[in-house]
């Protein structure tokens, strides 16, 4: 499917593009500046009259917005841009998904919320769908999440607002999945509310950043909300952070269960989502080479190694397993690490087997296409397999248990 | 507003097209709607072994550029992992609001429906099996008609001729491979004693061409059956859609997703979403619901606003691996990838198990390797030397053993729960395993220990019986014409209206029944 994503270079946009690409879609990143590695289409919210859809677009995901909070763009131009997109999507028979905000309300306290609300009307009128995310977090520390992570990192003391406003967190990758699913859902003119169904207090959310993301301890000092309200009134200029807090306090809870059900989504727990994922590609490639070598019994081609690493990234979003050095150097010894409880290693082996099989090299090895065969060879092969297995079983029993574990035997959930 | 069409058919699967032919041939204005998905990844053109040995990009159709096969690792059947068939299953649950636990609910939004990916097994039902509110003989002409359209093969007289009841409609079988030839030779020798033990063997009757027909070519043993046949030797309802489109009174509306149905006086109205995403309504004098058992059930229950659970029939299944030592070390050969030989096995309580055996060449080996209790490299070594002399078998038990229910919840989602009558099924499977192992042993084929694996509830994908036909239909039932009690002029014409589900393949029967209903209704609309 040909999909245009506006705001593709942003915090959410990057993850949406990754999710679409993993699904095999043909993605066009519409942004002001080219995004490295993606096909680019010039798009500027400030110039609504210039906005066009690339030919053949079937789905438009509209993420671009002025998130500076400083009103760099006029609401009028944001709205006009949305109108242009809606009109063009309709003319081209393309579906439009607009990513709005939990603050969207006709009488929202900020321009931002009111603009979102007006754009929602435009999109819904054209039978498009709206996604309203709760508090987005996780992944790269950019966007609003980045600001919060930065605050928690810098400040040893953090405010615990009283009464505490509550947020409904959603991991940026879960949100990306929700947006992609909303693009495929049958329902039109629908608002999907995406976030944890049970709200957590904002304090809890900051604490999760400190504990699971930064692994630091932070002291929370109670701060009555009225003080903030007073500070906001008293300050002569608009103070950015205070404005934002103001809109946080005005948030209305969302009932997200029905939307999550319809999108077939199960959000990851906050503690899990806060973990930082970094995937050093070199380690991953080394592991892919090792598991492929193990299943093929010979050196894999480079393109096959790359493909396996990409599969692990795309399907598992997983970190390297942390295979010990000896296993990387002598992949046959991987036999010692295989165990029914290490599901992640099993997945790596399954995918390596599947990808290795789907090559001419694999066909020769597994199907014996173009290879000599015969009963004697088969008997020999089977006996040697049995002997090898017995050998490794013996080695396993004498080896201490601790030597037989990958560093990362936990099992990340596969995400579709 | 008057009706836009005489009849709207929801669904272009085997049921939809079978109902449409008699209506269209009678000159009625018929609109057919479906999910509109079509194949995105092409199957190989060369035969399987050649393509595997030479195609550097084979991973695109074996795994998928988006790693489809790896994403679908936990799906119940290799078919559901094949990238070339992904389109046949994608998006179904979300669009039709179907949720299932622990049941496996599979459905389609494709042109041609699930028949894009089916196993092509066909059979007629007997009176006792069908339990229709009319004699099965009434289905006779319809069975004939659909068989003629599809092109069947496998007949020629054997111990299963009566069981399948299709020999008059069948072309000769597609040639067998070495392994099946060997089993067949042994069977003919040990026949009498095997039959006495309640085991009968015969050629599989399949909707696959052994002779060319119109624009479809005959099977050439390329072995790509799992991935899809570029020669169209296997029947798919999408070929019938093409033939229907030749009629000027047939209106083809792919990509029109029906969300709900309403009865409005003399008209029936469907609310739908067009490919562009806009909502629309279409009206007709009659509505034929053939969205596949699960989707049809949701549409009908929603229209009735009926929230009591309805029974859902589905066959318990199992799979096993047979080893033919006499063939050890033989090179892989080209061959037919669907059922080559079928068996019917008598079990206690007058029940029967049915199944077929298949070559292992066209099935990716990683599918099997991950189930062996060995280290991965050893498993591969073993399979590499053993699989060439193995065949896989499947087994179906009657759908009456099913204990699943479908219920429309408050949000109008169809929730499917339950599975089988566990204790009965366990006993029967144990008995079947023992008897099959014994029977095949007499044919020099050894059931590999530990290979007999029961399938998960629903994984048979033979769903039926949610809105059963009855002579005097009660609430949630349908008339002899498939008309839903309480929804005038709405006819259910797919598996949902079958009152019973034997262990046999049921698609041919649901097609014949759809044809019969089409023939009954056509004259009343002219
Ligand atoms: C792997 C596999 C193997 C199988 N093997 C066999 C076998 O060997 N023998 C056998 O007898 N059966 C087999 N089956 C089952 C067989 O495929 C089905 O019984 C058969 O396809 C059912 O036909 P149908 O027309 O009722 O529904 P489907 O084939 O499911 O067609 C449904 C149609 O409805 C449309 N539709 C669905 N929802 C909507 C909606 N909301 N709006 C508009 N249109 C909609 C779809 O686009 C599609 O055109 C197999 C199935 C699978 C998946």
From TrEMBL, chain A:
InterPro entries associated with the record: ComplexI_NDUFA9_subunit, Epimerase_deHydtase, NAD(P)-bd_dom_sf
Molecular function per GO: protein-containing complex binding
Residue ranges of every copy of the NAD-dependent epimerase/dehydratase domain listed in the record: 3-195
Signal peptide positions on this chain: none
Protein name, UniProt field: NAD-dependent epimerase/dehydratase domain-containing protein
Gene source species: Rhodoferax koreensis
UniProtKB/TrEMBL annotation, chain B:
Domain Glucose-methanol-choline oxidoreductase C-terminal: from-to ranges: 459-514
Database matches in InterPro entries: FAD/NAD-bd_sf, FAD/NAD-binding_dom, GMC_OxRtase_C, P2Ox-like
UniProt keyword annotations, A-Z: FAD, Flavoprotein, Oxidoreductase
Signal peptide: none
Stretches assigned to the FAD/NAD(P)-binding domain: 5-58
GO MF annotation: an example: oxidoreductase activity, acting on CH-OH group of donors
Pfam families on file: GMC_oxred_C, Pyr_redox_2
Names of required cofactors: FAD
Keyword ATP-binding included in the entry's annotation: no
Protein family according to the UniProt entry: Belongs to the GMC oxidoreductase family.
Name listed for the protein in its UniProt record: 4Fe-4S ferredoxin
Organism in which the protein naturally occurs: Rhodoferax koreensis
């Amino acid at each position: 499917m040909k999909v245009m994503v506006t705001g593709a270079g942003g915090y959410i946009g990057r993850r949406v593009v990754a999710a679409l690409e993993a699904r095999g879609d043909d993605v066009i990143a519409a942004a002001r500046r080219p995004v490295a590695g993606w096909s680019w289409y010039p798009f500027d919210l400030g110039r609504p009259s210039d906005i066009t859809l690339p030919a053949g677009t079937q789905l438009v995901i509209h993420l671009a917005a002025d998130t500076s909070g400083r009103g760099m763009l006029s609401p009028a131009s944001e709205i006009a841009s949305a109108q242009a997109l809606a009109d063009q999507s309709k003319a081209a028979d393309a579906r439009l998904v607009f990513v709005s905000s939990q603050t969207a309300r006709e009488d929202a306290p900020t321009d931002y919320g009111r603009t979102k609300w007006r754009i929602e009307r435009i999109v819904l009128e054209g039978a498009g769908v709206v996604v309203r995310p709760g508090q987005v977090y996780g992944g790269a520390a950019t966007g609003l999440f980045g600001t919060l992570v930065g605050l928690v990192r810098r400040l040893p003391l953090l405010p615990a607002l009283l009464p505490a406003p509550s947020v409904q967190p959603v991991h940026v990758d879960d949100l990306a999945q929700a947006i992609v699913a909303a693009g495929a859902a049958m329902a039109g003119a629908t608002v999907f509310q995406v976030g944890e169904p049970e709200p957590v207090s904002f304090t809890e959310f900051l604490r999760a950043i400190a504990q699971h993301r930064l692994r630091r301890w932070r002291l929370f000092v109670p701060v009555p909300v009225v003080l903030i309200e007073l500070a906001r009134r008293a300050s002569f200029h608009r103070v950015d952070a205070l404005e934002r807090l103001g809109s946080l306090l005005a948030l209305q809870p969302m009932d997200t269960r029905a939307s999550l059900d319809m999108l077939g989504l199960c959000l990851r727990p906050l503690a899990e989502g806060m973990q930082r994922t970094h995937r050093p590609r070199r380690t991953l490639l080394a592991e892919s080479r090792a598991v492929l070598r193990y299943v093929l019994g010979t050196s894999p081609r480079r393109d096959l190694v790359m493909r396996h690493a990409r599969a692990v990234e795309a399907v598992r979003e997983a970190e390297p397993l942390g295979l010990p050095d000896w296993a990387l150097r002598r992949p046959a010894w991987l036999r010692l690490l295989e165990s029914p409880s290490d599901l992640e290693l099993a997945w790596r082996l399954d995918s390596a087997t599947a990808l290795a099989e789907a090559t001419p090299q694999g066909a020769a090895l597994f199907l014996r296409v173009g290879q000599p065969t015969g009963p004697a060879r088969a008997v020999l092969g089977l006996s040697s397999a049995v002997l090898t297995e017995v050998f490794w079983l013996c080695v396993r029993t004498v080896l201490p248990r601790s030597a037989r574990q990958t560093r990362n035997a936990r099992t990340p959930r596969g995400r579709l | 507003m008057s009706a836009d069409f005489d009849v709207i058919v929801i669904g272009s699967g085997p049921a939809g097209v079978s109902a449409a032919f008699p209506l269209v041939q009678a000159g009625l204005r018929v609109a057919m709607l479906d999910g509109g998905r079509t194949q995105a990844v092409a199957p190989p053109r060369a035969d399987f072994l050649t393509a595997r040995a030479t195609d550097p990009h084979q991973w695109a159709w074996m795994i998928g550029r988006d790693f489809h096969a790896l994403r679908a690792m936990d799906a119940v059947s290799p078919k559901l992992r094949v990238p070339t068939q992904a389109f046949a299953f994608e998006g179904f649950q979300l669009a039709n609001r179907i949720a299932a636990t622990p049941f496996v609910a599979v459905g389609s939004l494709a042109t041609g429906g699930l028949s894009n990916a089916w196993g092509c097994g066909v059979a007629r039902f007997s009176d006792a099996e069908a339990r229709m509110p009319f004699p099965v003989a009434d289905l006779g002409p319809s069975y004939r008609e659909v068989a003629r359209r599809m092109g069947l093969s496998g007949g020629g007289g054997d111990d299963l001729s009566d069981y399948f009841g299709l020999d008059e409609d069948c072309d000769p079988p597609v040639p067998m491979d070495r392994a099946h030839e060997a089993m067949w030779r042994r069977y003919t020798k040990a026949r009498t004693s095997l039959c006495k033990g309640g085991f009968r063997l015969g050629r599989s009757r399949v909707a696959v061409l052994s002779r060319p027909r119109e624009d479809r070519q005959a099977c050439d043993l390329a072995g790509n059956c799992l991935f899809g046949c570029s020669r169209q030797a296997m029947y798919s309802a999408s070929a019938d859609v093409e033939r229907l489109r030749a009629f000027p009174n047939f209106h083809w509306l792919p990509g029109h997703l029906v969300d709900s149905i309403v009865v409005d006086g003399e008209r029936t109205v469907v609310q739908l979403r067009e490919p562009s995403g806009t909502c629309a309504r279409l009206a007709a004098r009659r509505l034929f619901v053939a969205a596949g058992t699960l989707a049809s059930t949701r549409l009908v229950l929603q229209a009735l606003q009926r929230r009591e659970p309805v029974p859902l029939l589905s066959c318990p299944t199992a799979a096993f691996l047979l080893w033919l030592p006499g063939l050890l070390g033989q090179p892989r050969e080209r061959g037919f990838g669907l059922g080559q030989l079928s068996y019917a096995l008598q079990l206690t309580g007058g029940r029967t198990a049915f199944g077929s055996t298949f070559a292992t060449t066209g099935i990716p080996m990683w599918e099997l390797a991950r189930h062996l209790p060995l280290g991965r490299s050893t498993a591969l070594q073993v399979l590499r030397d053993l699989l060439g002399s193995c065949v896989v078998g499947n087994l179906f038990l009657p759908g009456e053993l099913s204990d699943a229910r479908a219920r429309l919840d408050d949000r109008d989602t169809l929730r499917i729960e339950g599975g089988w009558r566990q204790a009965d099924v366990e006993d029967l499977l144990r008995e079947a395993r023992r008897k099959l192992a014994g029977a095949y042993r007499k044919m020099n084929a050894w059931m590999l220990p530990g290979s007999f694996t029961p399938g998960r509830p629903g994984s048979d994908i033979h769903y039926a019986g949610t809105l059963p036909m009855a002579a005097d239909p009660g609430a949630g039932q349908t008339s002899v014409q498939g008309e839903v009690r309480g929804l005038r002029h709405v006819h259910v014409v797919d598996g949902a209206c079958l009152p019973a589900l034997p262990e046999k393949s049921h698609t041919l029967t649901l097609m014949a029944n759809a044809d019969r209903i089409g023939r009954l209704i056509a004259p009343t609309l002219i």
